[in-house]
Specification:
The complex is a heterodimer of chains A (about 350) and B (about 525).
Chain A (H helix, E strand, L loop, with lengths): L1 H10 L7 H19 L4 H27 L8 H17 L4 H28 L5 H22 L18 E3 L14 E3 L2 E3 L1 H19 L1 H11 L1 H6 L4 H27 L1 E3 L8 H10 L9 H26 L4 H19 L7
Antiparallel strand pairs in A: 1-4, 2-3
Helix pairs in contact in A: 2-12, 3-7, 3-10, 3-11, 3-12, 4-5, 4-6, 4-10, 5-10, 7-8, 8-10, 11-12, 11-13, 12-13
Chain B lengths: L6 E10 L2 E11 L4 E5 L6 H8 L3 H4 L5 E6 L2 E3 L4 H6 L2 E4 L11 H5 L6 E2 L2 H6 L5 E2 L1 H14 L15 H14 L5 E5 L7 H15 L4 E5 L3 H7 L2 E6 L2 E7 L5 H9 L18 E10 L6 E9 L3 E5 L6 H8 L5 E7 L2 E3 L4 H6 L2 E4 L3 H5 L6 H13 L3 E4 L2 E4 L1 H15 L15 H14 L4 E5 L7 H18 L2 E5 L3 H7 L2 E6 L2 E6 L5 H8 L11
Parallel strand pairs in B: 3-10, 3-11, 6-9, 9-10, 15-22, 15-23, 18-21, 21-22
Antiparallel strand pairs in B: 1-2, 1-4, 4-5, 7-8, 11-12, 13-14, 13-16, 16-17, 19-20, 23-24
Helix pairs in contact in B: 6-7, 10-19, 14-15, 14-16, 16-17
């Protein structure tokens, strides 16, 4: 009897491959089968999925540090994205191209992201208990502030500024800089499926880095302090600085993420475009089995694959079946926000 | 049909999930007397009062056995409202007052005087308008009764603590039918002067025929003000006396008397002369457990106990030394001053800590046993780490191996080292905490409430592990516990912490009553025993 009880309890522990994830995988395979039955271009669907996975994966990875440190989902991810965009624009302004240009963009945005991350963490430390709401509002207000910023920043390259007057354009093409530079690196085509090897490699490197960080002494301390701040304090771990460390990491990943995203997309999108970019990433890590308190690399990888491929594959199929093209965007919104809402209702530990 | 007793509780028994907490307890209260109810924490005082008030916790756990008579008539009290109807009132230990209200509003809360009006006729009392003048007048009269000369329109929040207790009692008195008021440690938050004034006021009120049940730990107050007293210990009534017939010494003996068999105690050990830890005027600001100017010296290799009632400050000692709460005063470890606010420095000077709040502070509930056991050593001593390219990584293999060794050594019942600690039983969780502290190989081990809420087998195991460690490594162990008998069975010396200060240091072989007196805040001379 005791044994049965303890087994049950054990099963309730955190697993990155839970029943809901298995159902989704089966559903995804079913969709792929259905697409070939409908004589749709299955290989293009798969290629598209992989490209979208590559674009979004770093954003999803950026959710990991803040969850581990006890802050929760990073709704303020666009703060990092703005740093990345600024770094990217500086490289375009100076006509930097190729892999060198890409790395320059990352290098320029790094110190910005570190600074912003420290400030962001400092703000969150003063707003304990409502980090996710504060992150959200910070996101919205800074995006608006930067809408002014983009208008007044002293960029002069005519590829960047509006044809008439000053200010930066809302989309800046990377065609002559580093469009698809990672996607095309060691690009492989098998059976009609294009694999953006370079991007996936870059993501793998970041994932390995994060994996190692979480297993380093510092990473273990961060997780321990995030799970129970008082326990951490009894070991002399400063919870505030651990949380700042996590926001710095997350913001840096947001900056790197937008640069990887943009090279694949081909454009830097400014103004209000980054405002909603945190939500798909949040939905993805939650679909991967994470909660607002616990997550690991497995949740990130599984989540981004499931979420992005479900959306890329399911939506063309629904439009094919229902013959209504506007449905796809509506469904996308319902699914991603529904998942976030569901996860927030499952939050524990803040009962009044 | 006037009965001799205003309240009789007869043969009251109560179990919580098969755990008897009250065994056939009977108490009686005469009209116009103060009946004191004394006993240690957990003796069953609160449960008895909960039964009297028909609290939901009683009825949701299968009720109780026995009968309650008021004025000689058997009554059923199934909710606090019933208790109120029968004229039983309560003055709580924590103030149940709304700070932003005037005194009159607080006293009349939910029993406000209403003006006659059309709205009230049409829609009932809820739509009535308050008759503030009547409320103030009546309140002023009641305040006079308790001897409090203060305007009824004063805001409650601006009053000194001592006054609030009077308002609580005024509120009960203001109820028309009240005839019995329960005072739950009313003097705990008052200064000596205030307490005296308060109790004189209570005595005054009894002349009107109102009775009081007076719960307190201060035996002097019992002796001076109560007419009659009942002593509870471990859920049983161990004595019922008229207070003039019994000495304070006798009372404390009865309260504590867990009859530790002194002959069974081990022979007094010779303590090393060397002082390992010294506290000088050590004060800790821990909410609910204040410690003021405590000074004590602990010898090398000693097992030292801190005993005392809950809320009197014994828990603050260890928490303060570890820097979990702000503290002032000096901590001297091995002759060197220790900065108590720097937890990491304290830990690295070989001081380890097992918290009394196992699930809140002591464990990472959603991490494996393995992490929970090794984390302190990993943090403080850089053990269980391997260096790769200059960066320290957690050495999972070493951690796992060590955790498995500890699981065997401490007999932790689990499915394996990777089981999360949340799903372990209390005793096994405590073993994990102690295993973690011992991994640091401390010279001073602070253990708070090591056996709280765990089963007998695990208790023995944990106490054995502590004594064994003390003998084999010579580490000083400082145990804070509410279980006096347990402390007396393993400690070399025991300090009693009462009302934020150390009132005395006793040997385990000292007589029961001395413990009782110190815990009741009576100095030994006053108790008339030295």
């Amino acid at each position: 009897m005791m044994y049965v009880k303890s087994m049950k309890l054990k099963n309730r522990q955190h697993r990155w491959l839970g029943m809901s994830q298995i159902i989704m995988i089966v559903f995804l395979l079913g969709l792929l089968l259905l697409s070939s039955i409908l004589h749709m271009d299955t290989s293009t669907l798969i290629s598209d999925s992989i490209i979208r996975i590559g674009m979004q994966a770093v954003f999803v990875l950026a959710m990991l540090p803040t969850i581990q440190s006890g802050i929760g989902l990073n709704f303020g991810l666009p703060l990092g994205i703005l740093c990345g965009l600024l770094g990217g624009l500086i490289t375009v302004e100076n006509n930097m191209t190729g892999l060198g240009g890409l790395f320059a963009a990352i290098l320029i945005s790094l110190p910005l992201a570190v600074g912003v991350g420290i400030l962001y963490g400092w703000v969150l430390n003063h707003m304990r208990g409502s980090e996710m709401m504060v992150g959200n509002y910070l996101n919205f207000s800074i995006i608006s502030l930067m809408c002014i910023g983009w208008m007044v920043l002293p960029f002069t390259n005519k590829n960047i500024i509006w044809a008439m007057g000053s200010g930066v354009r809302s989309t800046i093409t990377l065609e002559s800089n580093y469009e698809h530079i990672l996607d095309n690196l060691f690009c492989i085509k098998i059976a009609g499926i294009t694999i953006p090897t370079g991007t996936l490699l870059a993501i793998a490197v970041l994932c390995v880095f994060m994996f190692l960080f979480l297993r380093s002494k510092l990473g273990v301390m961060m997780r321990c302090s995030g799970e129970n701040a008082v326990f951490g304090a009894s070991l002399g771990i400063n919870n505030n600085s651990m949380r700042i460390l996590s926001t710095v990491l997350s913001t840096v990943l947001g900056a790197v993420g937008i640069i990887i995203y943009s090279q694949s997309y081909g454009f830097y999108q400014l103004y209000t475009a980054p405002q909603m970019m945190a939500y798909p990433a949040i939905a993805a890590i939650l679909i991967g089995g994470a909660t607002t308190r616990r997550a690991d690399i497995g949740n990130v990888i599984l989540g981004v694959i499931l979420y992005q491929s479900l959306l890329t594959i399911a939506l063309p199929i629904t439009s094919e079946l229902l013959d209504n093209s506007s449905l796809s965007e509506i469904l996308r919104t319902i699914i991603s926000n529904g998942i976030i809402l569901y996860a927030l209702t499952k939050m524990v530990g803040r009962k009044v | 049909m006037q009965s001799e007793f205003v309240l009789e509780m007869k043969g009251i028994s109560k179990e919580y999930f098969g755990n008897p907490v009250l065994k056939d307890v009977s108490i009686r209260v005469r009209p116009g007397e103060i009946m004191a109810l004394v006993g240690e924490n957990g003796a069953g005082k609160s449960t008895l009062m909960n039964i009297l008030f028909g609290m939901p916790t009683i009825h949701s756990t299968n009720g109780f056995k026995g009968e309650i008579r008021i004025d000689g008539e058997t009554v059923q009290i199934s909710s606090p409202l019933d208790a109120m109807r029968h004229g039983i009132g309560m003055v709580h230990q924590e103030f149940m007052l709304i700070d932003d209200y005037e005194i009159a509003e607080n006293v009349k809360l939910n029993r406000e005087n209403l003006k006659k009006g059309i709205l009230r006729k049409l829609f009932g009392d809820k739509a009535g308008v308050l008759d503030r003048r009547a409320m103030k007048e009546e309140t002023a009269a009641t305040l006079d009764e308790v001897g409090l000369n203060i305007d009824a329109a004063t805001h409650t929040g601006s009053l000194p603590v001592g006054y609030k207790q009077f308002i609580e009692i005024a509120r009960e008195l203001d109820k028309n039918n009240v005839r019995l008021i329960v005072l739950d440690e009313p003097t705990a938050v008052l200064t000596e002067k205030e307490a005296e004034k308060f109790l004189q006021c209570v005595q005054e009120v009894t002349k009107k025929g109102i009775s009081f049940i007076f719960i307190t730990h201060r035996l002097n107050e019992v002796k001076n003000y109560a007419n009659h007293m009942a002593i509870l210990r471990d859920g049983s009534l161990v004595g019922e006396y008229d207070t003039q017939d019994v000495s304070v010494r006798k009372i404390s003996e009865l309260m504590i008397g867990r009859s530790v068999d002194i002959s069974q105690l081990e022979e007094e050990r010779k303590l090393s002369e060397e002082i390992i830890l010294e506290l000088k005027d050590f004060s800790v600001d821990m909410p609910g457990e204040f410690l003021k100017n405590a000074s004590v010296q602990i010898h090398k290799g000693e097992i030292f106990g801190f005993a005392g009632l809950a809320g009197h400050g014994k828990a603050a000692v260890a928490n303060g030394i570890m820097g979990l709460y702000p503290s002032s005063g000096e901590v001297i470890l091995n002759g060197e001053p220790l900065n108590a606010s720097d937890t990491l420095a304290t830990l690295s000077k070989s001081v380890a800590f097992v918290s009394e709040d196992r699930r809140g502070v002591g464990l990472l509930l959603d991490e494996s046993i393995e992490i929970n056991v090794v984390i302190s050593a990993l943090r403080v001593k850089n053990q269980f780490l391997k260096k790769i390219a200059g960066i320290r990584f957690y050495d999972k293999k070493a951690g796992r191996k060590y955790a498995e060794k500890m699981i065997q050594e401490f007999d932790i019942r689990c499915t394996g080292a990777s089981q999360h600690t949340r799903s372990l039983s209390g005793g096994n969780q405590q073993k994990v905490c102690i295993a973690r502290a011992m991994t640091l190989k401390p010279e001073v081990l602070l253990v708070s409430e090591p056996t709280r809420g765990i089963d007998v087998g695990a208790k023995k195991r944990i106490l054995d592990a502590l004594t064994e460690m003390n003998q084999s490594t010579g580490a000083a162990i400082i145990i804070t516990s509410s279980e006096l008998a347990e402390l007396r069975s393993i400690c070399d010396r025991i300090a009693i912490v009462t009302e934020g200060g150390i009132t005395g240091i006793l040997k385990p072989s000292d007589e029961d009553y001395r413990y009782g007196l110190l815990m009741s805040g009576v100095s030994e001379e006053e108790g008339g025993c030295v």
